[in-house]
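=== RUN LOG ===
request id: a7f3
mode: sequence -> structure
chains: 1
length: 413
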Amino acid sequence: MRVLIAAVGSRGDVAPCVGIGERLRGAGHTVTIAAHPSYAAMVRAAGLECHPLPGDLGVLLDLPERSTPAYQAGRVPRLTTLLREAARATYDAAAHADLLLTNGSAPFGYDVAEARGIPGAGVYCQPMTPTGDFPPIVLHSARSWGRPGNRLLGSLGVRSMIPFHRATAELRRDLGLPRRSVRRTQARQAAERWPILHGYSPAVLPRPADWRPGLDVVGYWWPPATTWEPPAELTSFLAGGPPPVFVGFGSMAGGHGARLAPLVVAALRRAGMRGVLQAGRAGLGVNTPDGFGPDVLAVDDVPHEWLFPQVAAVVHHAGAGTTGATLRAGVPSVPAPVFADQPLWSRRLVELGCAPEVIPFRRLDAGRLAEAVRAAVREPRHRAAAQVLQRVVTADDGAGAVVELVERLAARS
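=== RESULT ===
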């Protein structure tokens, strides 16, 4: 079967889809990933085809120091354009597909599958459906409003995703499909029991009992194994002292590197820890050609599955994929969430005992970060809790659940 996976978003959105694609390819399917061209090498390294999605990801990922109403209002049309172009490119790629899988940043995938007359399903790394169990991720906050409040805000939050809904409505208009409201689409999906698999462990965030049938939590989708070889400088640094603390914000914090790098280095030194800083989109360390000294090393892209088992703790933005990678490695965290689902995963890390506290990204300062790093490393309970979760999340077979779903849908079509 020819499977298309619409993977809109950052590396953290694309890498799990590549892991799914690799398993599907191993099961005999032909897989294409629709993703931003900057991830084409990762896709093709797994033996998969890549269909490019146009647009500037900075519209989605780069946020100012302080988000004003004027900034958010100006962002809506730019984000709508990005998503509309991605939707059209996904529709074009689906001309050669027998089945479409779509991630949480590409809700228009449901409409593309309808237009192409092929089966589809969701493969989400975040819980998008309203529930009373926790607050909606669109609030960018982990504060609970009680079960009725969480569910009400979740429903309102889904409807407030204006760029996504505009892009979908414009796609339907361009394809000659009848207009359909968000509420009617949700009702149709519920009636069909349209499947959405969630790629995180139920031990980390259990499936809400108030979700409709067809929504399942199946376990993490790990990026494919690589033949990556570490640079000599990194292996020498790791061998030259006690395990360091890893610090990285992934695809978040674009343009914040000049502020973050000295803050992070000062915090590590106050905590008495060595550190590995990953540049990421923030550019940590890129403007310090002479380095930070013998106790801190700046690196480019390093596979988390290779590095994390060798560190004392991980300071990170708490994206779904990075959170899973820390648990897979059995190491404690210091989460510094930026937006979206990150506050939710941060809160769960603390509740599960794997992190001492949550430090919101915009409240990072050297003193508070130093105290959190010191607690994560020196209080054994955090590593012990992470190691308990390590055994659970590595026993899950999330990608296998996707293969089973694809073959079930294929048998029906």
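=== NOTES ===
The two ends are 11 Å apart (CA to CA).
The chain has a mean pLDDT of 89.
=== END ===
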